[in-house]
Design brief:
Largest sheet: none
Structural class: mainly alpha
Low-confidence stretches: 291-301
Helix content: over 70%
Number of domains: 1
Distance between the termini: 50 Å
Shape: globular
Oligomer: single chain
Length: 301
């Protein structure tokens, strides 16, 4: 007699094996490293645009106050709270011309994700879909990513509003600290997962159905939210980030952020491959002899 839930574990293991088959022939870590280059370019401009738009909605003083609350909720060992506070204070005073200029690098991450998704959009050894060719194709992808920047203040506001409560709970006992981590985990999950739904549906070269997209995005969002909490824990470790780099703490901090972006990107790309495998299980396989281009249902340029 099989154990309760045994069939679910078998299906899960089979699904993960199918994802591994899809990724066979593609170096996920290398692909993610390439996309991380785009993420490193877009990180600060994206935050500047989001904070500046949020300042329009709430007022600069309120945004700075919430930014300070986020900073106080972060561990003090690596000075992350000070960095967040300085970034928020600078962003709320940025002129609109600078915001328009920041939109150019801020949308480049969408282009990078599109290229990374293209690598895992078909199962090995089928040929990959056409890449983003020419500046016209790249700009179309970046325009598709632009709505995320307009909606970013909403998710950013959710994180900022909960920060004062979390700052008061951390360090006030094991139970309250655990509750603060649990609340932060769920807030991050609810903020990240809808973003992944949009990314997988709009930026991916192959568009999966809603059922597969929701499961893939919210499942991936759970792992990403957990990783974000792990990064906060890392910030609490009193290590010298500049020790491996001749004492240059700024260099060590930049490398740590890039490493964080790399893991974040790898989870996102893996989640897209998982989403496509969920869709493949629901959609019958095409007849034998169908051309590869026809097999890639939903493929877009």
């Amino acid at each position: 007699m099989s154990a309760p839930g045994g069939g679910r574990w078998v299906r899960l293991r089979s699904l993960l094996a199918d994802v591994g088959t899809r990724l066979h022939g593609h170096d996920l870590f290398l692909v993610s490293a390439g996309v991380t280059f785009y993420a490193a370019i877009a990180l600060v401009p994206s935050l500047v645009v989001a904070v500046r738009l949020l300042a329009v909605l709430l007022g600069p003083e309120r945004v700075v106050e919430l930014g300070d609350a986020v900073g106080s909720a972060l561990p003090e060992a690596q000075g992350a709270g000070r960095v967040v506070g300085d970034l928020v204070r600078t962003a709320v005073e940025v002129g609109w011309l600078a915001v328009l200029v920041a939109l150019v690098p801020a949308t480049v991450y969408g282009e990078g994700l599109r290229r990374g998704f293209a690598r895992v959009s078909v199962r090995y050894p089928e040929p990959p879909p056409p890449p983003v060719r020419g500046r016209a194709g790249a700009w179309r992808v970046r325009l598709r990513a632009a709505p995320l920047l307009l909606l970013a203040p909403v998710g950013f506001l959710a994180v900022l509003e909960v920060a004062p409560f979390l700052a008061g709970w951390f360090g006030t006992g094991t139970a309250r600290t655990a509750l603060a981590v649990y609340v932060a985990l769920n807030v991050d999950w609810l903020v990240v997962s809808p973003v992944l739904v949009y990314v997988y549906r709009v930026l991916g070269p192959v568009r999966a159905g809603w059922w597969a997209t929701l499961w893939g995005a919210f499942g991936t969002g759970a792992f990403i939210s957990g990783f974000l909490q792990g990064f906060v824990l890392f910030l609490a470790i009193p290590v010298d980030l500049g020790a491996p780099f001749g004492g240059y703490t700024q260099v060590g901090g930049a490398v740590a952020v890039c490493l964080w972006l790399w893991v974040l990107t790898a989870l996102t790309v893996y989640g897209y491959a998982l989403t496509l495998e969920l869709e493949r299980r629901r959609v019958p396989a095409p007849p034998a002899g169908t051309r590869p281009a026809a097999r890639r249902a939903g493929l877009r340029g």
